[in-house]
Structures are given as C-alpha cells and as structure tokens.
Amino acid sequence: MKLHTHEWGTGDRVALLVHGIMSDHRTWRRVGPALAERGYRVIAVDQRGHGLSPRGTGGTPQERYALDAYAEDLVETLPAGAELAIGHSLGGITLLRAVERLKPARAVYVDPGWQFAQAEGVDPAMFVEFRNATRDQVAALNPRWEDADIDVELATLAAWDPDSALAMPGQESGLPTAPAVPSLVVLADQSFLVSASDAELLRGRGFEVRTVPGAGHTVHRDDHAGFMAALEGWI
Fold this sequence. Notes:
7 strands, globular, single chain, 11 helices, alpha/beta
C-alpha cells in the first residue's frame, strides 16, 4: 500500500517519521519543522487506516491491519538509506519490522509498543471508545499539551479507522534481540510499555536508552524540548 506522506524541509539528509495508533503525520507538527531546521528533508507517513492513507480492506481486522502489512507499507512508500528514522508507539513496532529493508543510518524508537500484549490496561475497546472523546477529555488526559496538539488529536481521531485497534490482540510482538542499525530508545517517564528491567535488557542488547523525565507516552508532545534534547547525538 502506498501511504500518504507529508514533508518538511529540503535538506540533503532524509529523516522518516512514523506515528502511533490513532494518530497520523500531524502528531509531528513540531518535530518535523525542528528537524528541517537542522538540515533534514523530513518525510512523515500516515499509516494504513490513519489520516489520508487508505483503509485496510478484506478479511478480519487482524488481516486488514496485520503488523507485517504495516511494515510492508513503509517499505513500499519510504526511501531506503535515510539518515534517520523515528517511530512512536505502533510506529516503533512497524519501523522495527521494516528497518532491515529501509536501512536508515540510525533509528529512534519512541516509547515503542513492542510488548503491548503484556501491557496492563491496554484494551482495544478503550481506544475505540476514545475516538469519540471531547476536547475537554483530551485536555484533561494531556495537561502538558498545547492547544494546537488538542486540535490535532481531535482531527486525527476523526480520520482514524478503529478496526486498527481491534486488530492488535493476538498479534505477536516483543523486545528485539539486537538493533539492526544503531538505535536509540526514548522512553516516557515510568513507561507502561517498557519497564525499567526491560530498558536494562535493551541496553544489554546494544540499544541506547534514554528517558524524558515527566513525559507521558506521547513524549514528543508532552515535552517537545525534552524530546529534542533526548535526540542530541542522534540527529
């Protein structure tokens, strides 16, 4: 599947951005321009079932939104050999599955959902219900967001196919055994997806792991400055 993309900048270096579930390229509204200012041509995708990209078709939700299909979409859409690739949450899962073929020089996984099946309180029905969240509800759950991020969240929820959440249970995922390319993992403070012991395990497997204090799961929107600081040495 060819995915919808949005670009910032015209630099000689290429950076790829892959969003999480319920979102689309607009989640990177500050990160994209910030990377462009550093000399990157930034390409952000809308994953299947999100934003302006096609919906998954045929069969069950698990077939329409198989994790391997997401990864194939990235390979079909994005250029290989980029300087940098960043994936958040679901985007961290699909980037990991595509990274050996995309061959970026460096990969960054932001609070990746590699062990979503084991995470407490991760219920697909909760995601589906949240599609109808009000502005006040979004603001209450994300007190550190700017008003523009709340606007983006409401818009991306309206453009999202909730079947992609219903497809998650039963799909295999887990911590990677080794990085295919030099890789950084940027975690939320007290991440519910990657525990402290998991972080140590990842370090032992060759990943660099950094945490943004006080940031929640959407690290780049909770603390943009802290997120960009965590990328120093990698961008």
